[in-house]
Design goal:
alpha/beta, 326 residues, Zinc Finger, Delta Prime, domain 3, 5 strands
């Protein structure tokens, strides 16, 4: 069952048990890091829950499953954040409330999936709380969130929380290979077991930016650093998104360099570049690396539209250059 979704075996068993016998409709909360398959499993579970034939069959062709796969199921309600900030607005919850007066049409149940429940405006959350306090009969609510701390405790107390862990590296790599993403193993490692994040890294050419970050670090101790930087053409046509990817890669490199210094036996994000990173920072002290990491983080968080990214990056490189000399 739900073979298309990798990992999360314990959660699958738990959810599978809910499909046995007479179905109860508790309100559920799926939480855990972004991009690891919470929504995929929620959708498959919703399809199974509404199914009229064999909910354990991934390829069931009953009327309900066909309607669900065709994105036209009358008893499935999907709510997701709107606008640039992906907030869930009160109007959206009011819409759900209106639908609550109608009985299911095709299935014996209705499923309401609220994606990004941690991005709910307060008024929306209070409105939803009323619904959860007295859920309409036959309604199953599934809320999805990456930050459980952002869910009002009153709402949280109404939900059965199901925690999702990042995938094991091998599982994440399998997802990447299934989608024919080159260097899937490396991307899976860089994304900490989040296939969604790994796909994003592939799309933003993260490995190219990682190579550039390594290249700059290789020359960071050069006394003529500014002259070296002036020769880097790509520095001139960075935008905020590229700079963000670049800095993310630089942060992982610096973090790995610290792990190597500490002699930690843990696997690095950039395990494939372990020796190169060790050699770049061979004569750097741990406190200097830590300073460089914190400073890079500060620049990363301070990025916003309209900044001159070349100037920002050059300023950062100069600071790292100074720290590493200490
Ligand atoms: Zn079915």
């Amino acid at each position: 069952m739900w073979e298309k979704i990798f990992g999360h075996e314990t959660n699958k068993i738990f959810l599978g048990n809910m499909l046995q016998g007479e179905r109860k409709t508790p309100s559920l909360l799926f939480y855990g890091p972004d991009g690891i398959g919470k929504k995929k499993l929620a959708l498959e579970f919703a399809r199974s829950f509404l199914c009229l034939d064999d909910p354990t069959d991934d390829y069931c062709q009953c009327r309900s499953c066909r309607a669900f796969n065709g994105k036209s199921h009358p008893d499935f309600i999907y709510v997701e954040g709107q606008g640039a900030r992906h907030d869930i607005l009160i109007e959206q919850i009011k819409d759900v409330e209106k639908k609550a007066v109608y009985a299911p049409v095709l299935s014996p149940y209705k499923v309401c999936l609220i994606d990004g429940a941690d991005r709910m405006r307060v008024e929306a959350a209070n409105s939803l709380l009323k619904l959860l306090e007295e859920p309409p009969t036959y309604w199953l609510f599934i809320l999805i969130a990456s930050e459980i701390s952002q869910i009002l405790p009153t709402i949280r107390s109404r939900l059965m929380a199901i925690r999702f862990e990042p995938l094991h590296r091998e599982e994440a790599a399998r997802v990447m290979n299934q989608q024919n993403i080159p260097q899937g193993d490396t991307l899976a490692r860089l994304s900490d077991g989040s296939p969604g994040k790994a796909l994003h890294l592939a799309k933003t050419e993260a490995l190219m930016w990682r190579e550039r970050a390594l290249f700059v670090m290789e020359g960071i101790a050069d006394p003529y650093l500014m002259a070296c930087l002036a020769r880097l053409e790509w520095l001139g046509d960075m935008d905020v998104d590229r700079t963000q990817t670049f800095l993310e890669m630089l942060l992982l490199i610096l973090r790995d360099a610290m792990m190597i210094k500490e002699g930690s036996g843990l696997l690095l994000y950039n395990e494939d570049e372990r020796e190169r990173i060790a050699s770049i920072f061979a004569s750097t002290t741990l406190p200097a690396l830590k300073k460089a990491l914190l400073e890079t983080e500060r620049f990363y968080l301070g990025l916003n539209k309209g900044v001159n990214t070349r100037m920002i990056l050059e300023a950062l490189f100069l600071e790292i250059h100074t720290f590493l000399k200490e």
